[in-house]
Amino acid sequence: MSPRIAIAILNWNGREFLAKFLPYVLQYSSQVAEVYVIDNASSDGSVAFLRENFGGIKIIENSENYGFAGGYNRGLKFIEAEYYIILNSDIEVTPSWIYPMIDFLEAHPEVAACQPKIRSFNERNKFEYAGASGGYIDFWGYPFCRGRLFQAIETDHGQYDDITEIFWASGACLMIRRECFWEVGGFDEDFFAHMEEIDLCWRLKNKGYKIMVVPQATVFHVGGGTLPKKSWRKTYFNMRNNALMLIKNLPKQWLPIVLFARLFLDFAAALKFLVDGGFRNFWAVFKAYSSLIKSFRYTLEKRGKQPLRQVSRVYGGSIVWCYYIRRKRYFSTLKPEKFSK
Asked: What residue spans of the chain are helical by DSSP H?
């Protein structure tokens, strides 16, 4: 008997994306997976559109917009499956995209989750910003990808087609064991949106599980469907949530030094926003740290609810230094021995 797979697409006012990409999901997936749309109280007629045009789709309606984290947590509680595939509404899937991932997870019980190779929908020969061929993090808490360092996005020549362990798998397309997802409590709803999948993967790694990328599966991602890259709200969530994640998950011996360094680096970034004329992004950094201070004690309490350990696939240097000072633009130029085993 084949394992039960559920594809869960979170939607908030994404009717156009559903119309464009849901047919591909059904065409290439319905034979091996059940397809659900979790709607976060959309106001664009998405639910009525689904009922009229996609009668076979299972719809779960949330009473309000709970964000990415809360929306998925509430919706997934109603889905019975051995594996969840968390899929953005602006993803174009490809033929047989599920099979490499499910075959790998079935053969490797120590792996909690994996992602496919994610390429750009608009520049199809390039990797996509949010995931590329697997996510990593450096010692100071900066995320990057195999195929994307900050804004330098590589063309895919097959250079990262090996199945390998990573630090985090992209929430744009994430296949995860249901029992593992709930073992660590699902997504942290305090994040609302952005970096919740990195936090989830870190908590899984603290439990001893592995996270992998399986590039033999490929999808194409539009990206920026909810918040544009230059949005001050995106700056706010990224700054705040990155700090929340570090406070929750860093081993005790590294927490003070990393937080102090990030305080300095984040305010340097705020000054750069100001110099570049981005006053709202400048203000978003201060707003993020104000929120962080208010929730600091509460966030510290979360540390005691999980084991904290030195986990694998952390880059032992500074990706900021590599990118801005040493001018490295390719993941392949980073020294492999600097990644923790």
From this structure: 15-29, 46-53, 67-76, 98-107, 178-183, 196-206, 232-249, 255-275, 279-294, 296-303, 319-320
β-strands 5-11, 83-87 pairing: parallel
CA distance 191 to 212: 23
Distance of alpha carbon 35 from alpha carbon 322, whole angstroms: 42
Question: CA 152 from chain center: how many Å?
Answer: 18
Global model pTM greater than 0.70 = yes
In words, the CATH class of domain 5-221 is: alpha beta
Tokens 């709930």, residue?
182
- Residue 341's contacts (CB-CB under 8 Å, 6 or more residues apart) are 312
Render pLDDT for 82-127 as a digit per residue (tens, 0 to 9).
999 999 999 999 999 999 999 999 999 999 999 999 999 999 999 9
> Within 13 A of 96's CA, how many CA atoms are on the CB side?
5
